[in-house]
Specification:
mainly alpha; 12 helices; 0% strand
Length: 367
């Protein structure tokens, strides 16, 4: 059915132009990141921050608060929350990180005997040997991570110009994000004013579809990850599992990659369970923690807190992360989900228009 005020041919032409512009814009972003990464990365981070926090500021604005004051309130609240979390989490993670070498060393020497006792039979010598080697390699890797990071930082700092540029770039992100967030309606209004008048309604609807898919995944999964991290960390701590907080955070935020977070979390919990065995009750606590976490995610957190999932399918997320990670490295992994969300809408629009052509329907085209 043609769009209001547009013929089917006009609507198809507008949608195809919009799709081409969106794909070209994504290509331009990656080109700028590869050539002007020092400038492009802070700007993209600031725009991402403005996008994430815009609903909160808009909500305050609807309640009668000036947008500048609303932006200030959100930034102050976010800063206080971040500072509080950092002050609490840094000592916790520092203590947990100090246990990692011992954790892996014990895993290599104690897990295999416990598995053998559980199975009632000896494992092949190759399995025992590989377990010992992997445990020792992981322990050595963790022990060398701190000095290696210090050497990398010292080498990076030796290039004064690059170090200063990166430092300034990271420092300017909050400033840019503040102004982008404050002027968010004006910036979107400027883009909207540049659109051809007959195509404003249709293109605005397309951007709304992108926003729905993107916000459903990004904002939704960040919320789900934070809540699940607290649930998993609290449950594993109650079960007196080694590295409970680290495992909980990995399992919670790892949930953004479907199945990966839960799978890795369960595997690490089983290793921690074997190393901190105090009785069968721990098995019940670990199993209950992940069962309750998944039930709350499916029945309460997503439907009641986040809202209906409109985002990407698990397969699409996994393929996007693998593909963009292979093509563009770490930056590609970070941008994989937003890019996949945009491409999903673009593909849906193109397919929608194709299904309305005479080529697809087999009907004679109207003169």
């Amino acid at each position: 059915m043609p769009e209001v005020g547009l013929t089917e041919v006009e609507a198809r032409r507008i949608d195809l132009w919009w799709s081409a512009v969106m794909v070209g814009s994504l290509a331009l972003v990656f080109a700028l990141l590869s050539v002007f990464g020092g400038v492009a990365v802070p700007v993209l981070l600031a725009l991402a921050g403005a996008y994430i926090f815009n609903p909160a500021v808009t909500s305050l604005e609807k309640q009668g608060l000036d947008r500048t004051w609303g932006t200030t309130v959100v930034f102050v609240a976010g800063t206080l929350l971040m500072v509080g979390a950092v002050l609490y989490l840094i000592p916790v993670f520092r203590d947990e990180a100090a246990k990692l070498p011992h954790f892996f060393s014990r895993a290599s020497s104690e897990v295999v005997p416990r598995v053998e006792a559980l199975l009632g039979r000896s494992l092949p010598d190759l399995v025992r040997q590989r377990a010992a080697e992997l445990g020792q390699q992981a322990s050595d890797l963790v022990q060398s991570a701190g000095p290696a990071a210090a050497r990398i930082l010292a080498s990076f700092a030796g290039n004064t110009a690059r170090f200063v540029a990166t430092l300034l770039g990271l420092t300017v992100v909050p400033v840019l994000a503040f102004f982008f967030l404050q002027d968010y309606p004006r910036l979107t209004g400027m883009v909207k004013d540049l659109l051809p008048r007959r195509s404003v309604a249709l293109i605005s609807r397309r951007f709304l579809e992108v926003d729905e898919v993107l916000s459903a995944f990004v904002r939704g999964q960040l919320t789900v990850g934070a809540v699940l991290s607290v649930i998993y960390a609290a449950g594993l701590s109650m079960g007196r599992i080694d590295m409970a907080i680290v495992i909980g955070v990995i399992a919670g935020f790892g949930n953004m990659v479907p199945y990966l977070g839960t799978g890795v979390g369960i595997l690490l919990s089983l290793v921690g369970l074997m190393l901190s065995w105090q009785g069968p009750w721990q098995i019940a606590v670990v199993a209950g923690t992940f069962v309750v976490g998944q039930m709350l995610e499916g029945l309460v957190i997503t439907p009641r807190i986040v809202g209906e999932k409109v985002g990407l399918s698990p397969v699409a997320v996994i393929i996007a992360i693998l593909a963009f990670g292979e093509l563009f490295g770490f930056v590609g992994i970070l941008l994989a989900v937003p890019v996949a969300a945009i491409l999903k809408v673009v593909l849906r629009v193109v397919i929608q228009r194709y299904r309305r052509t005479s080529m697809y329907t087999g009907e004679a085209s109207s003169p």
